[in-house]
Amino acid sequence: MSETPVNDNRLTVLDHSRLRAKAAKPGAERGHISVRDVDIVFETTTGPHAAVKNANLTVRPGEFICLLGPSGCGKSTLMNSIAGFVPPTSGEVTIDGDLVTEPGPDRGMVFQQHSLFPWKTVKENVAFGPLMAGVGQNEATSVARTFLSLVGLAAFENAYPNTLSGGMQQRVGIARALANYPSVLLMDEPFGALDAQTRVMMQENLLEIWSEFRNTVVFVTHDIDEAVFLSDRIVVMSASPGRIIADINVKLPRPREQSLLTSPEFMALKRQCLDLIRQETLNAFQQQNKAG
Ligand SMILES: Nc1ncnc2c1ncn2[C@@H]1O[C@H](COP(=O)(O)OP(=O)(O)O)[C@@H](O)[C@H]1O
Ligand SMILES: [Mg+2]
């Protein structure tokens, strides 16, 4: 199925303030993530397996960061500890000062494999979170429509997920995650399975939406272009066991559009990431040679 342009039928008047206020802790700063001295070790049949080593990371409210690193380096594991799915073996994760011990509605998740309910329509999928949070049916439907408009899928509210393209399903996933007004949006390679052109469109649409809501975003990717294009900061992880080896400020102006991808400033940041990852890969290779 062909993609519809994003942001068709976009709502011009959005009144999110009431729902957003409902989701907020009164008077509290929202979306401040703190990862302190986190080690994550999995027990496997062949013994303990260190996935994340000594991770320290602070993400300020409203910041957009990317976790960048090679496949298998522990990005998803670190993100899942922020989500509350994987407990740190040692160290701690807090959000707005509260220790993370389980998943919660303050954190919205978007995965690479869309995880929509196939038996529910697009609108019902997005309305599900607000309904679970105790919002009435009419209001939940109206919230769902608002967010479907934001991702350009207003015309598809009664469609079932399996009739949509991969890109469209991911847009539903983003709408669904946002419909709970989370203070933190956790995205694990959400555009990884999409073709290059759809991917850039999705990135632009995501930035547009984020500029409106300013949630804190932690976005996992192994794609350097994607990390530079999207983020305020790129947190680079080493090969397994994942350590944080660099924290790069991305001072590219916003709003960002596709034309940025060929600018000298973009290229320079890309180069910096490439050099880091190349050096890291060489180090890992030399270690393996020594060990072998
Ligand atoms: N539940 C688990 N049990 C055992 N090992 C795991 C588990 N989850 C991930 N791993 C291992 O931890 C390492 C990091 O995995 P992951 O965080 O998925 O990497 P990434 O997301 O960077 O590709 C990998 O070696 C992976 O095989
Ligand atoms: Mg992963």
Feature tags:
10 strands; 292 residues; alpha/beta; globular; four-stranded antiparallel sheet; binds adenosine-5'-diphosphate; Rossmann fold; 2 domains; six-stranded mixed sheet; 8 helices; binds magnesium ion; disordered N terminus
List the total number of helices.
8
| Helix/strand/pairing category | alpha/beta
The figure for the number of domains is 2
What's the alpha carbon Rg, rounded to whole Å? Answer: 19 Å
Give the ordered list of helices and strands. Answer: HEEEHEEEHHHEHEHEEH
CATH superfamily of the largest domain: P-loop containing nucleotide triphosphate hydrolases
List the quaternary state of the chains.
single chain
DSSP helix fraction? 25-40%
- Low-confidence parts lasting 5 or more residues at pLDDT below 50? 1-14
CATH architecture descriptor text of the largest domain: 3-Layer(aba) Sandwich
Q: How are the strands of the largest sheet arranged?
A: 6-7-8-3-9-10
Q: Outline, from the CA principal axes? A: globular
Total count of strands: 10
Strand % is: 15-25%
Q: Average pLDDT across residues?
A: 89
CATH class of the largest domain: Alpha Beta
Largest sheet: 6 strands, mixed
Bound molecule types: adenosine-5'-diphosphate, magnesium ion
- CATH topology of the largest domain: the name is Rossmann fold
